[in-house]
Amino acid sequence: MFDTVVVATDGSDSVERAVDVALDLAARFDASVHALSVVDEGEVDASPPQLREELTTALETHAEAALGTVRDRAGPGIETAIREGQPATEICEYARATDADLIVTGTRGRHGENRLLLGSVAERVVRTAPIPVLTVRQLEEVAEDESARDERAAA
Question: Where is the UspA domain positioned along the sequence (predicted)?
């Protein structure tokens, strides 16, 4: 059913479960895994000109670290890539270029904490991807929210 799975990562805690799910699916279907991290050119362009080169380097270093974490969990055979551009667009283009069957992404990334259900990148990927997209939420947040609700109810 799945021959190639692309997992998008920005290194955030909320993506960890998405990586686990992508690796599990790939193992179950004996699929190849491609991990992708995108350096957001909008973030760079919004910074002061004198900081752009430094910010780009920092974001590339962060992307490499995020991919290193995925590589450590996946073992040998995983393909990794860093792209620069608008994250949702780059994720979809990468999926096309690798002839992927599935994109796996977290529901919230580094900038998604203020979104109600889906982060803006995840939402755009879901709307524009040429293939199925599996969004994976971070369960710890749900457990924390339920615990807080239970504590309020007990008070």
Answer: 1-137
